[in-house]
Amino acid sequence: MTKKYDQPDAMIFDMDGTLFRTETILIDAYYRMFDSLRDEKLYEGETPPVENILNSLGMLLAAIWKRVMPDASEETHRRADDLLLEYEIDELKNGKPELYEGVEETLRILKERGIRLFVASNGLEPYVKDVAYYTGIKPLFEDLYSAGEYKTASKVELVRLLLEKHQIRSAWMVGDRSSDMEAALGNNLIAVGCDYAKFRSSGELKDADLRITSFSDILNHLV
């Protein structure tokens, strides 16, 4: 039997691996970034496997670079921030960014039902806003929150700021990583685990109140 919940005032969505198929722009941007780092003499050697960054999606960039290139300098990490952002935005403009199946249609239904929609992402501000813009879903959201804009150290803190600013009484936090589940738990929200991106590590969704195997499945859990 499908577990159902009363309709919340709001739903807060992670971006990468939840709404957006990040790999549709990230892979090419990642390889371009390492080519530039080598050209600028900031990195030597082969490009680390792209799975290293795909499996780190949802983390803050500083933590991602410590995992992807742990021996590189802080200067290299900060330059990687700039280059990856530049190339990702280029790929958004000129490539073929894709949402997960059913995302736009489901978001429209939720909005029509009177649910306030937000994004909370650990990404950089221009990236988060440009993904929403170039995939056509930006008008569906009341606001877009990013760690890059608010300088938060955790998604728990980022979501708390969002809830306080918009005076939200009840909400679901929807995402695919442990940081999303922690943000829900830390703010007394319903935690919805997205079980379709496949980038996460085993056990990351163990604290989810419910799991969905397709984005549109979220509708089946509303009373």
UniProtKB/TrEMBL annotation:
UniProt entry tagged with the keyword Hydrolase: yes
Q: Which GO terms describe its cellular component?
A: cytosol
One Gene Ontology BP term is:
DNA repair
Q: Which UniProt keywords apply?
A: Hydrolase
* One matching Pfam family: Hydrolase
Task: Kindly list the GO molecular function terms attached to this UniProt entry.
Answer: phosphoglycolate phosphatase activity
Q: Name the InterPro entries for this protein.
A: HAD-like_hydrolase_sf (IPR050155), HAD-like_sf (IPR036412), HAD_sf (IPR023214), PGP-like_dom2 (IPR023198)
Instruction: Say which domain of life the source belongs to.
Output: Bacteria
What Gene3D superfamilies does its record include?
HAD superfamily/HAD-like, Putative phosphatase, domain 2
**What is the name attached to this protein's record?**
HAD family hydrolase
What's the source species for this entry? Paenibacillus albiflavus
